């Protein structure tokens, strides 16, 4: 015998090894082989046939026994082989000889300990043979001799015996699997061995040099007549197929096949066999099986015993069918619950739901299977993300996702789904995981916790989750353990993966939009600064060319003021001097923006800074005929700021002056607020004017921009102020107070502690 393989054999070399094992089975005895060859010769020598039979005592005994059981009216008067051969005919003798030797050959080598039922197999084979013989005798138009039909029926399933002898242990597993699954034997053979008994039977027939018609019947008897190759003896193959279906209907013997045979009445109609034939011939078949079994030495099988066996087999098949129906009904019920769970999951879910909403829908889906609507959930988006826990009750998230510390096992950070393994939980040190104990306790109040986790075998980039639900009712564990539940879990996981991906895409979109906004702002600032640089170069050139003429104009206007006598002339000279001074100041401001001086930094009290800025603002407003009402609110001690007081006070005075001009005679408030979180101070200036317009917010820091009436301000104040504030690593921002209560300017300056940390 060949060596068995423990795994399913699908390699062509392994399949060929099995077939080689079949071909290594013993050949037929020389007597049977020579008898078959003599029968095929053109000239038949009766004396030679008689000598062959007489040389084999077992065959001689079988031939004489057949004569005594045959319905020829001669009884026990046939006492010689010669008279027996003449009485039975050559074809019957050939069939008897081959039947005896095949049965003896396999009976000697069969293993009775496996799943193969050898006595039952031979009863089934004999039943098929008798059925085939009866069909051929009653329907000569089919062109099949009864003897040939009998022999083909007896040998039709020898491929099963061949595989059992070649691979006894493996074939026992095949038979057990077919019995458990209640399915066609050939399908299980192909799955587990890579070859079926039909092909093995064909190889055995070729090995024994059996007639081609017998070989095709052993090979093709499970196929529909319409699918048979044109070069086969379709009549004999169809008769054996019909006999097989009839035998299965009689429930005699054991065939090891639980698949549905070809439809008996449809096949009978194709061959022209009437339905009543099977009813009328049933008792005859049982009687023939009993007689032929005695002749072959199968043991004593009386007609009564075979009838009882037939009824028992029918009851056994009916019981198996009922058990299968009950199993299918239970599976259908479980499948219905799983489908309901999937339906609830999708009804609770929207395409743009966040991961926590997907987990909430998972709990609603699981509640269909478990029975509880309360659950604790632990999730982790991927290996590098933190653990989060949440609580769900009655379809609502009652505790939003909260970050929790992840446990460790053997020095490695665990995934939430690892907790569904009892051995893993036992290896954890829960002393520092109060949150986990509390989470289990919140569920344990309603029942024994049941764990539903994502797949254990996940990659580091996949999400992992664990649903902890109180067990309600029975049968939940069985449903969760079924392969069909894996489809539900796969649907949950895919939806969670998609939701996490969508969340990351939304976050990336927001970050991209923010980055684009920042780039646009920086681009505008860069453009503005480049414009200021160009303007500064222009101002520097203008200052060089215009300072001397302006000095002359300013000096001469002062001389005219002193020499002129009338007040009107003196006022004209004063205006000329003021205009010249204004133009000189403008050129100086442009030069300051383009090429600001280097500040002399030292720590200073921000209160003194604000007071000096307010004083500068009051003086400049006074020179323009406007009264400045400024209130300074300062409380407590403020951390010092590194600054050039003179330079920064000039910068801070600009927004104070703008606030005064926004609504003259109205109160302007200036306050200082510490911002310890960012290590800075915020100086806030509020007015009671109309507030900044959208156009002002957009262009306030552009040189020469102003929404005040022409001639009131130069429009360089905020540009100059921002440049000086940025020299102190500060920021200036514009906004409006709530409910239209005026404009608000905030100047942020780093404190000395923040500056030292940054350094």
Descriptive labels:
759 residues; alpha+beta; Hypothetical protein af1432; 4 domains; five-stranded antiparallel β-sheet; five-stranded mixed β-sheet; 28 helices; disordered N terminus; disordered C terminus
Could you please describe the fold and organization of this structure?
The protein has 759 residues and is an alpha+beta fold. The chain has four domains: 12-27 and 98-301, Orthogonal Bundle (Hypothetical protein af1432), CATH 1.10.3210; 348-481; 506-595; 599-758, 2-Layer Sandwich (Heat Shock Protein 90), CATH 3.30.565. The chain contains 28 helices and 14 strands. Strands 3-2-1-7-6 form a five-stranded antiparallel sheet, with helices on both faces. A five-stranded mixed sheet has the order 9-11-12-14-13. Strands 4-5 form a two-stranded antiparallel sheet. Helix 4 packs across helix 16 (275-296). The protein is rod-shaped. The two termini are 87 Å apart. Mean pLDDT is 79; it is low at 1-9 and 754-759.
């Amino acid at each position: 015998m060949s060596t068995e393989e423990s795994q399913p054999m699908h390699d062509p070399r392994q399949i060929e090894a099995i077939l080689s094992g079949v071909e290594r089975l013993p050949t037929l005895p020389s007597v049977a082989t020579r008898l078959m060859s003599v029968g095929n010769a053109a000239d038949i020598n009766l004396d030679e046939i008689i000598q062959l039979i007489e040389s084999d005592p077992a065959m001689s005994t079988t031939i004489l026994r057949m004569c005594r059981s045959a319905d020829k009216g001669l009884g026990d008067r046939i006492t010689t082989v010669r008279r027996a051969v003449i009485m039975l005919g050559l074809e019957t003798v050939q069939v008897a000889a081959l039947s005896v030797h095949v049965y003896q050959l396999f009976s000697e080598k069969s293993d009775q300990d496996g799943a193969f039922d050898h006595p039952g197999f031979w009863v089934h084979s004999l039943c098929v043979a008798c059925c085939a013989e009866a069909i051929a005798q009653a329907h000569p138009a089919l062109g099949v001799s009864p003897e040939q039909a009998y022999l083909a029926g007896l040998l039709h399933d020898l491929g099963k015996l061949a595989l059992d002898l070649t691979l006894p242990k493996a074939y026992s597993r095949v038979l057990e699997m077919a019995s458990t699954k209640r399915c066609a034997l050939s399908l299980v053979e192909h799955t587990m061995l890579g070859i079926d008994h039909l092909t093995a039977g064909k190889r055995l027939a070729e090995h024994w040099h059996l007639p081609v018609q017998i070989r095709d019947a052993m090979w093709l008897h499970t196929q529909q007549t319409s699918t048979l190759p044109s070069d086969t003896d379709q009549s004999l193959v169809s008769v054996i197929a019909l006999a097989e279906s009839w035998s299965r209907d009689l429930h005699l013997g054991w065939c090891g096949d639980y698949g549905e045979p070809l439809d008996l009445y449809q096949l009978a109609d194709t061959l022209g066999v009437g339905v009543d034939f099977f009813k009328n011939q049933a008792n005859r078949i049982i009687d023939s099986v009993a007689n032929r079994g005695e002749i072959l030495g199968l043991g004593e099988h009386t007609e009564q015993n075979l009838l009882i066996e037939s009824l028992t087999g029918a009851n056994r098949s009916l019981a198996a069918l009922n058990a299968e129906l009950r199993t299918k009904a239970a599976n259908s019920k479980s499948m219905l619950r799983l489908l309901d769970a999937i339906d609830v999951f999708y009804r609770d879910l929207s395409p743009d739901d966040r991961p926590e909403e997907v987990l909430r829908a998972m709990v609603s889906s699981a509640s269909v299977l478990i029975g509880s609507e309360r659950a604790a959930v632990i999730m982790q988006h991927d290996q590098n993300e933190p653990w989060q826990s949440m609580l769900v009750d009655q379809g609502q998230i009652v505790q939003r996702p909260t970050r929790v510390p992840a446990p460790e096992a053997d020095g490695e950070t665990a995934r939430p789904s690892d907790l569904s393994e009892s051995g893993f939980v036992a290896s954890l040190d829960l002393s520092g995981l109060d949150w986990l104990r509390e989470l289990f306790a919140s569920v344990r109040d309603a029942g024994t916790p049941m764990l539903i986790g994502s797949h254990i075998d996940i990659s580091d980039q996949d999400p992992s989750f664990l649903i902890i639900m109180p067990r309600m009712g029975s049968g939940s564990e069985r449903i969760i353990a079924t392969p069909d539940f894996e489809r539900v879990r796969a649907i949950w996981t895919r939806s969670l993966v998609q939701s996490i991906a969508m969340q990351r895409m939304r976050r990336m979109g927001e970050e991209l939009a923010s980055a684009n906004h920042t780039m646009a702002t920086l681009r505008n600032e860069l453009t503005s600064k480049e414009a200021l640089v160009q303007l500064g170069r222009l101002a520097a050139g203008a200052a060089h060319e215009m300072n001397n003429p302006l000095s002359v104009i300013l000096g001469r206007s002062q001389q005219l003021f002193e020499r002129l006598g009338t007040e009107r002339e003196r006022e004209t000279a004063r205006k000329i001097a003021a205009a010249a001074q204004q133009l000189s100041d403008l050129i100086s401001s442009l030069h300051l923006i383009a090429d600001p001086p280097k500040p002399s930094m030292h720590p200073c009290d921000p209160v003194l800074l604000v007071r000096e800025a307010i004083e500068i603002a009051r003086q400049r407003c006074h020179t323009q005929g406007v009264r400045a009402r400024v209130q300074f609110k300062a409380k407590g001690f403020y951390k010092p700021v590194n600054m050039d007081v003179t330079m920064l006070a000039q910068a801070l005075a600009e927004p104070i002056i703008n606030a005064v001009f926004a609504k003259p005679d109205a109160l302007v408030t200036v306050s200082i607020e510490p911002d310890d979180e960012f290590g800075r101070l915020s100086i806030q200036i509020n007015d009671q004017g109309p507030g900044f317009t959208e156009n002002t917010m957009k262009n306030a820091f552009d040189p020469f921009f102003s929404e005040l009436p022409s001639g009131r301000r130069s429009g360089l104040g905020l540009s100059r102020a921002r440049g000086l504030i940025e020299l102190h690593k500060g920021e200036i921002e514009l906004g409006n107070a709530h409910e239209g209560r005026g404009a608000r300017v905030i100047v942020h300056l780093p404190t000395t502690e923040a500056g030292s940390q940054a350094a």
